[in-house]
Design brief:
The protein is an alpha/beta fold. The chain folds into two domains: 57 residues, Nucleotidyltransferase, domain 5; 190 residues, 2-Layer Sandwich (Nucleotidyltransferase, domain 5). It is built from 13 helices and eight strands.
């Protein structure tokens, strides 16, 4: 986790150290793929790059370090591709459903009807900014948590369309690191098992209980939990707060967890190109 959007919220620019470490990791990934015989390497950037005033500078760094172009996708494309990855991984999910994907810089909501995105909304609401503003080394006090939750609610109220709010869908699906981590913790896994996490039903009560338990721990204590990948200890609390607010605002008592999402959607799109 290179945290490309670190420090971006207050400046609207990507920070030099974050750009450098991310470009280095992307180049290393590309080299590993090439060493395995891969000829077609795709690099995709999302909200941190598309919203940064100096996004072009970062793209130039990646081109220089990796020798490859970067595709910057819109919020709508991010939502569409995430839906593509989710539907490919949950074939038993038939009919209409609502999907949300919590990211570092934005949260995507997609209303799926008959397997297609009938509505897609990208809300500028990500875990990195919230962590920088509301998290510290210790447990999260109630006043700070309540302020964060109120801001999450306000941003969702401003960003969600009537079509999403009045979705009428019978199921909610969640993808990306927050919900998969919450699912792993809910299952009591000692090590992350995508086969068990994928398709897990995560109730609102479980999200509320886990969110409260995680907020009561210090950063070091959170980092020591099984299934919490390095770099997520400060992100999981704001992520769980977004998840809880999304459940309440959209009127669901539970969600289905998808271990697949944007990356798998990109792969599906590439394969469809023939």
């Amino acid at each position: 986790m290179t945290r490309l959007g670190e420090g971006q919220a207050g400046t609207d620019i990507l920070q030099p150290a974050a750009m450098r470490r991310t470009a280095e990791v992307v180049a290393a990934f590309a080299r590993r793929a090439e060493d395995l015989g891969v000829r077609d390497v795709r690099i995709v950037a999302t909200s941190a790059v598309r919203e940064a005033a100096n996004g072009a500078e970062f793209l130039a760094q990646v081109r220089s370090s990796s020798g490859r172009q970067v595709r910057v996708i819109s919020g709508e494309d991010e939502a569409r591709l995430t839906l593509l990855g989710v539907t490919g991984g949950l074939p038993d999910l038939r009919g209409d459903f609502l999907l949300f994907d919590i990211g570092g810089g934005s949260t995507e909501f997609v209303l799926s009807r008959a397997g297609r995105a009938s509505q897609a909304v990208s809300v500028k609401l990500g875990v990195v900014e919230l962590a920088e503003r509301f998290m510290d080394q210790g447990p999260v006090d109630h006043t700070r948590y309540d302020a964060m939750a109120a801001e999450i609610g306000a941003r969702l109220a401003a960003g969600l369309t009537e079509a999403i709010l009045r979705h009428g869908a019978p199921a909610l699906v969640g993808s990306a690191g927050t919900v998969t981590t919450l699912a792993a913790l809910d299952l009591g896994l000692e090590s992350y098992d995508p086969a068990r996490v994928h398709g897990h039903r995560l109730t609102r009560a479980a999200v509320a209980e886990l969110g409260g338990r995680l907020a009561a721990l210090s950063l070091v204590e959170r980092a020591a939990l099984p299934c919490l990948e390095p770099g997520r200890a400060d992100l999981i609390v704001p992520g769980s707060a977004i998840c809880l607010e999304a459940l309440d605002r959209l009127g669901f008592g539970a969600l289905v967890v998808s271990d697949r999402g944007l990356r798998e959607g990109i792969l599906c799109e590439i394969l469809a190109e023939g």
